[in-house]
Amino acid sequence: MGDVGDLAKQVLVQEGARSGRPDSQAALEHELADCLWSVLILAHRYGIDLESAFVRTMGELEKTISARLDP
């Protein structure tokens, strides 16, 4: 399934929606780190400044949420 799928499975275990060891903090940490590594590699490969992209995206999200809360 891949890194994101493995992370999703582990989150479901942590939330009790899937069988497994929900006490395994190490497994969740591992899957999060795998996904982060993949994101960092992709950003590097395609020349994306993640810090700038994150700040820009969060600004857009904040505007969207504010518009929905203050009609």
Automatic annotation (TrEMBL):
<dbReference type="InterPro" id="IPR004518">
    <property type="entry name" value="MazG-like_dom"/>
</dbReference>
<protein>
    <recommendedName>
        <fullName>NTP pyrophosphohydrolase MazG-like domain-containing protein</fullName>
    </recommendedName>
</protein>
<dbReference type="Pfam" id="PF03819">
    <property type="entry name" value="MazG"/>
</dbReference>
<feature type="domain" description="NTP pyrophosphohydrolase MazG-like">
    <location>
        <begin position="23"/>
        <end position="58"/>
    </location>
</feature>
